[in-house]
Amino acid sequence: MNGFAAALLAETIILVFIIAVIIHDKIVMRREGKKGQGRVAKLPALPTDLEMTGKALAKLPPMATFGQILTHLQGVWLMQVSGELRTVAMEVFSSEQEANLWLTSRNEYLNGGIPVELCRIPAGEELVLQLLRKKVAYLNDDGGR
Questions:
Q1: 34 and 82 in one domain?
Q2: What are the backbone dihedrals phi and psi of residue 113, each rounded to the nearest 5 degrees, phi first?
Q3: Which end of the chain offers a freer environment for a tag, N or C, measured as fewer CB atoms within 10 Å?
Q4: Looking at the structure, do residues 78 and 134 belong to the same domain, yes or no?
Q5: Cβ pair 79, 122 in contact under 8 A
């Protein structure tokens, strides 16, 4: 078998594989579509991060600094923080301003991460909650006197 024939055979195999994957995906999507018809009400689509970020940035002046942009985005992210996290943060800090400052500042116990940014994913939010709960336990054990 010469080089041209081997290359043609390899391309044919790859093409057949791609077609098989496409057909499989269409069959799976068709099955899933039939299973869900009429059983589950469609929920309104939530805005994506890109849409929310675009709306937030549209409110900034055209020549905004990086600090202004970051502060504005962190404000948008603060509005999305769960009620549980807000409640625990308020147990630790004496005011909402102090809680928000902590949530938007780098934290050495989170490897330099910013809590409000970590809260954008469930695992990150759980990590922030664990840290705040440890602070609550410390304060409740007379460590905060």
A1: no
A2: -75, 160
A3: C
A4: yes
A5: no
Q: Tell me, yes or no, whether 133 and 64 share the same domain.
A: yes
> Does 126 lie in the same domain as 72?
yes
Give the C-alpha distances (Å, rounded to integers) separating 113 from 8, 60, 65, 93: 51, 25, 21, 19
**Using one digit for the tens of pLDDT, what is the confidence trace for 67-122?**
888 788 878 778 878 889 888 998 899 888 899 889 988 888 888 888 988 888 88
Contact between residue 72 and residue 57 where contact means Cβ atoms under 8 Å apart = yes
Give CA–CA dist 81/124, Å, rounded: 12
HEC readout, the chain: CCHHHHHHHHHHHHHHHHHHHHHHHHHHHHHHHHHHCCCCCCCCCCCCHHHHHHHHHHCCCCCCCHHHHHHHHHHHHHHCCCHHHHHHHHHHCCCHHHHHHHHCCCEHHHCCECHHHHCCCHHHHHHHHHHHHHHHHHHHHHHCC
88-102 pLDDT, tens digit per residue, is 998 899 888 899 889
Tokens 């460590």 belong to residue: 143
Same domain, 4 and 53: no
Q: Measure the CA–CA gap between 53 and 47, rounded to whole angstroms.
A: 10
